[in-house]
Amino acid sequence: MTRSCSCNDFNRAQLLRRGAAVAGRGLPQIEPGMPLPAGTGLDRRTFLLRSTGAALSVYGASMLSPLHFEEGIAAAAAAAPEQPVIVSIFMEGGWDSLSVLAPVGEAKYHQLRPTLGLAEGSGQPFSEDSRLMWHPQASGLATLHAEKKVTVFPAVGYDPPDQSHFTSRHYWEVGELNTQTRSGWMGRLIDATGQSGNPLQGLSLDYSLAPALATTKMPVAAVSSPADYSMWAYGLGEPVTAPALRTFGELGALGAPSPAYAQARGASLDTSIVLNQMAAFVQAQGKSTYKPTVPYPATGGEFPARLAALAAMLGAGLPIKCASLSAVGGYDTHSDEQETLSTNLGATIEGVLAFQRDLEQRGLADRVLIQLWSEFGRRPEENGSGTDHGAAGVAFLIGTQAAGQMIGEFPGLSQLDENDNLINTSDFRAMYCALLEQWFQTEAQPIIPEATLFKELPQLIKG
Amino acid sequence: MVHRRHARPRKARQQEQHRGKQHVKRHVKHHKRRHKHHKHVRHAAAKPRGTLAIPPPNAPASPPAPSPAPVESLGAPISLAQARRLCWRAGFGPTPGQAEALAGQPLQRIVYGLTRPSGSATLSGPAPVDDEGNPLAPADAWGHDHCWWLDRMVRSDQQLIERMTFIWHDWFANSNEKVNSQQMMLDQNNLFRSMALGSFHDLFRAVTVNPAMLVFLDGIYNDKYDPNENYAREMMELFSLGADRGAYTEDDVREMARALTGWQAEWSESSGLHNFHFDASRHDTGTKTVFGQAGNWNWEDAVRLCVSHPLHASFFVTKLWGYFIASPPDAATLASLQNVYTSSGYSIRAVVEAILQHPQLYDGPELVKPPVVYNAGLLRAIGRPIDTTAWAWLSSGAGQQLFYPPNVSGWDFGAWLDTSSAKARWEIASYVTAKTYPNPWPGQGEPEYSATENSAEALSSALAYWANPQLSSESSQCLAAFAQTCLSETLAPWQESPFRALRQNALRMLIATSPDMQVS
Question: Which residue of B8, B30, B422 is in closest CB contact with A268?
Fold first, then answer.
């Protein structure tokens, strides 16, 4: 093998640092509380332009030329610190709501769950309904709930319930009961209120784009690991790297004769923009450019690191409106539920708690709302070591601005639906409508076509 | 269904850390930083371009009745562009000269060459090894399973057999994340390969009681005391009938689960799950009513009831069609394909032969290459054997690690490319070039790159490196402009060779990662 490609490799973070240094403005650091312009001698807009991916300093040095860059990102970045944010976390597979908030006060629960039923007193009681108890591994939610930062949907769903993972998940993703809809509900929010040059406005912290973020015209992004978002190649180096990466983006701006071509072109173009947006977050010399303000759990794979990066990115003023993550592990517990659920739920909730504390430390908590959702709940009657697909499930909205009051009551197990599943007492589409109107100050109707079904929306945000 | 939400594999993290360390070293001392003035191309604000997934063709709820009319066929000898597309759609891309050799030949002969191979496959070229040159351990080492199969994709002369195996892995998507036995996954893979073009009824039956599947969808936990619905639901929704077509009810799911009861396995510390078998004492022998038919059904009846369901043939041919062709079949084609399928006794081969000769494959819109196909195709183009296991984590980063589909519905073939996977494909391309790129800063005894190559020569040399793939004229112009302008017109003598090598490497990367190369 040919040796020593390393000297030619391209490191964007280093490049931008040098670009900034050359410009005589010092090195942009991404630290907690960064968007505050105090003491920098710069106005907020200028400061943000330099810190947000520090792209303009690089652009100014003509090292990198983002395509139609200024209008989109600059405007978005300037407005970002005041904008509300949603962080949507998907519990994939249909989590067992009757374990997350277990109706231990109901005798029927113990009949239906001889093996899996949680014992009364094994978790913290739920203060809004004495029948219910938090799963022991969800104690972080109990803590936040006691601080009035959790709005609970104890039985959320839709009628008629669909027990296919893929159909039900699709409904939740697109925000309507329509198998043909292709744009996501958050994607349509971005289409209606976003910017054409800002992919980060809808950010999947994952290896692929969350369907709930799919847009019809605006760009959105997937970033699996913010610290790694750079592009280098064997035998590539300056002075060729910068024009090469520019050409990579330019190839994405050319015409596309088919949807597949358009997807490929669009991915190249958006990647070149996100490279600039993310530049300051790419680790340099193996070191992270940011530090969380609180410790994050060591378990849970990439989930806690992604949340920590997200908090730092929001702290730096990156123009993120909707972020999407998958929770730790899977929740389709047809078998071996006890152990699987405890492990995955515990790691997820621990990460969420750390994230919330991080946001609070950074002074961002009032503009970020976390949503935990799943495609359905599971069958009340167990199948031995697990549970099959059910209907209504549980969802949470977490944040200092969450109203903190239960939406819809827990319907109890004495009356189930025709398939012996939990009956819903709230509808996810009403949740979306209320989020759009109360959190994003946007009219729900054009984004959620079935909005008219819901005359009165629940109050999700503190009044 | 089970889901993979996993920590990035340890190996991958180590590799990336390793790489991270590697690429912070700069070569700034080699030359003074200097800038050429690039013309800033002022782009009009790009056309709005959303990020919708491309939906696969879906079988209609009311399909046309099967028709004995023949399926439309291209008939004529195929062009070079058509031959290239066939190599990407029915295999893993052309080897150098392969598409050129197929061009001009009658299509039927080419297709039969793919669908009716004789004997066992020939794997030509060096056997796969890991980074230390040792043979792969596909049943044991992380990522070696992926690379073991990738090697077959790269080297097998029975390309369609590997491609069909790849399709069945997605169709009956099981993940080792839950199965937790690479050997069981490999056994299932060999099952897919051996039945790749036979009868779907036989394949479906074999898969239903295949150990990996029995673990993945909890067949071994399904008994008459506590029926488990996991396999029952997915065998109808994903494997044979489709959701939202009115093909089955929730009651059918429950009754089907009862019919499937009785399979189990033993477990021991040393062997894990083993001895998968049917235990009649755990089977529900009562009457079950499935699709309105009552009987004492067992697992074989369950499969038979699915394949003889009136909505199965339309589901099967439409889903299979979607792996090869982007646009849906029209009603007449759907009617004829159903007839091809049912009248041949559920023959996969018969349907594939019809699809591969259909004009829509050659005239219709592009498909995005799956990450593994893209990776295998680049290796085939430059003739590189499997000599590293990096492909496993690289491909995982691009959204597709073999034996680890994201869930039981398989990968989303309509959403391969976004800002995460495009960057990951760049990394794949870079690793593909790792052993053959010209070093701009050669050490003692290493060759120096040409100090005189002009921009047109540079572009054709880079295209030749990838065995001359076809690019759109717009992309070619863009690359030619880059080749012309990326270097200063007046290079210092010490820059003449190194900078041309840099340009060559950049061109190779830009070709391999171009949007044109992501589609076929």
Answer: B422
